[in-house]
Amino acid sequence: MGPLAAVVIPLDQGSKILYSGAIRLKYAMILEYINAALERANYEIIEDAEPYYGEIPELPGVFATGRTLEECRRNLAGVIDEWLIIRLRRGLPIPPVAGRTVGEIVRVDTGAGV
Question: What's the pLDDT tens digit per position in 13-62?
Fold first, then answer.
């Protein structure tokens, strides 16, 4: 596999990023991981303004709440995404979920800082 690169094309309405095939593959791998994790989620109703609570048993510290089950699920997907970013940036291991792994992801320096 060659180096990963993104081409940024400026547009009148903002910027659009075109990804190389390798980046699309890694993105698809991350989405599969998030979806596999969501399939393993446990949900319960709690006494709270956002009564739906969800967590992923295989991912310590990953949980979310919401006013509806669907909102909780969306929030949980966002938390998993952020959890993955933090673990990747810090070089921490990412446990497999339902046989899915993120695999080796090459860090791309965006210049945005860590």
Answer: 443 444 456 566 667 888 999 999 999 999 999 999 999 999 999 999 99
- Give the helix ranges, DSSP H, for 9-68: 21-39
Q: Are 45 and 51 in contact (CB under 8 A)?
A: yes
pTM: predicted TM-score of the whole model, two decimal places: 0.69
Q: Which of 18, 17, 23, 16 is nearest to 2 (CA)?
A: 23
Share above pLDDT 90 across residues of the chain, in percent, rounded to a whole number: 53
C-alpha closest to that of 69 among 55, 52, 44: 52
Instruction: Retrieve residue 6's tokens.
Output: 């993104």
Please name each of the domains of the chain with its CATH number: 26-90 (3.30.160.250)
